[in-house]
């Protein structure tokens, strides 16, 4: 039998053309016996990923560290004391670095914000435990800013691989400018001087970012730089 | 081999570096006999070949600075075929054995990790294995000709040599190319679709001669035309289209007369840039023939060999620990290797067997696996009056196959298709 659409000869008894999926109308119909398959229907097992034992081991390790810290503090110091830091740090490491690997598909747009949210929680604990007042005016906005920037870069590079240089340029400029914001939060929380250091990273990052943006937008710049700087 | 290990040849170095859990570079050669295969006799035949082919019965081991191939203590166990050819060779398997001897009904197949040999070496092994099997089963006395090796002889040193350094001219050829179009589709994580197009060799040759080119150039041009049409449909704006290049392996034994059984092939990337304008098949044939003729000369190929061999001769690079070296090789490969072509069209040419063997063998084929980054691949071999065009893919859509084979039909080359996927 031949496929009426793409003209190739098909194996006897084929129900449809394997190339264009056109159903076969065989006038001999049921008389045509299907041809013997060219390969057995035996499937090899897909490659096993060996990360689960490693993950289990690392989880157990973190659990052991936090438990032993807590037991030490409770028996010797009769209070939670510094073991709180250790336990929460272990939890943070677990959720930020290990937890996503239990899943087949790791969606960074979910796990990255969760990681930064947990960092915020950890810092809040430290702030409350030490009786500080720096969380709301410094730690929270800075962590949120870092989380926002990281999530934005994940978004930028995950969807659409075009114009990567331009994206890097924009990102570097924004990172540069965010240094000024960090200094502002430092300033209002710890009464430090404004513009003491932030101008340096702002200038250098923005300069590099601007050059990259120009390279992408002005035709000829990129070719010229490539010609002059190739390795 | 003398000692029980050997260095990887120059082309083989890249394959362990770039293989990962879900992919390794494997290819298959197979012979379909007239009667069902006896696994016990095939096992004996495989064992009998062991002294003659020391470079094939090896496993991949890791040294501090390089990978190396270590002789197997015993021949590999023959096994039954899977639902799809070229089942992945995981690193764990490569550490125990780099070759698989497989049977299914009438078919004997051998799968090689590419670090051992290339298609030409593989087919010599398969012919010798089949000849030995036929001797054990039917008492057929197959003479050592047409690529069948004499099992009573000791392996020749030139069969085991790495021919690349011998034919390098020391002047590295710079062939910087832009990235080619990347074909895409819905990935099938655990299945490889194989579509075999069986075409009469005479009709294919006649079609190629109508355009005044060889079969390899003709098939490469038809493939380029199919990919160009594929791209035109998806990207109507001409300015945004990408170059279409086909990776064509060149058998260097034909150029330099080497007898090595290890890797001795290099690839060229002939193709066109669709931004310059449309090409018809006649123009594609002449452009691709001109590009291949200009590049596949002993002088230019020696320069290409030098580009690969020269870094290996620098002591500082040799002294870099293997993991670092592998990482760097992977980076270079991603940047300069696969990204320059859209698909492989690997033509092994006409496979001839000794007359005493011919009545027992119905068909011989050559299948290459998918590449690390692109989804389709194509391998071609001619046996008897038929040419077997094997197109393999790890995506669901058979679009390129459909375009390619129906174009051949349009060009008066009748195609019969077989597939493992239904």
Summed up:
Chain A has about 230 residues and is mostly helical. Chain A has helices at about 50-75, 85-100, 110-130, 135-160, 165-190, 200-215, 220-230. The longest helix of chain A is centred in the N-terminal third of the chain and has 27 residues, at about 50-75.
Through-space gap between termini of chain B: 46 Å
Reported for the largest beta sheet of chain B, the result is:
8 strands, mixed
* Span between termini of chain A: 58 Å
- The radius of gyration computed from the alpha-carbon positions of chain B, rounded to a whole number of angstroms, is 21 Å
CATH H-level homologous superfamily name of the largest domain in chain B:
Nonribosomal peptide synthetase, condensation domain
Query: DSSP helix count of chain B?
Result: 14
Estimate the strand proportion of chain A: under 5%
Q: Indicate the CATH class of the largest domain in chain B.
A: Alpha Beta
Overall mean confidence score, pLDDT of chain B: 92
Beta content of chain B: 15-25%
CA-based shape of chain A: flat
Output the number of helix runs of chain A: 7
Unreliable spans of chain A: none
Could you tell me the number of beta strands of chain A? 0
Structural class of chain A: mainly alpha
Query: What is the level-2 CATH architecture name of the largest domain in chain B?
Result: 2-Layer Sandwich
Q: Which chain pair has the greatest contact? A: A-B, 25 and 35 residues
Going by helix content, strand content and strand pairing, the class of chain B is alpha+beta
Question: What best-fitting shape of chain B do the alpha-carbon axes yield?
Answer: globular
Q: Using DSSP, what is the number of strands of chain B? A: 16
Biggest pleated-sheet summary of chain A: none
Please give the structural blueprint:
The complex is a heterodimer of chains A (231) and B (422).
Chain A: H1 51-77, H2 83-98, H3 108-130, H4 135-158, H5 164-190, H6 199-217, H7 221-229
Chain B: E1 5-7, H1 14-18, E2 26-33, H2 39-48, E3 58-62, E4 67-71, E5 79-80, H3 91-96, E6 99-104, E7 107-113, H4 119-138, H5 157-160, H6 163-167, E8 193-200, H7 201-210, H8 215-234, E9 244-251, H9 252-256, E10 265-268, E11 271-272, H10 281-295, H11 298-309, H12 315-318, H13 322-336, E12 343-351, E13 361-368, E14 376-383, E15 386-393, H14 399-410, E16 416-419
Parallel strand pairs in B: 5-6, 9-12, 12-14
Antiparallel strand pairs in B: 1-4, 2-7, 2-13, 3-4, 6-7, 8-15, 8-16, 9-10, 9-11, 14-15
Helix pairs in contact in B: 2-4, 7-8, 8-10, 8-14
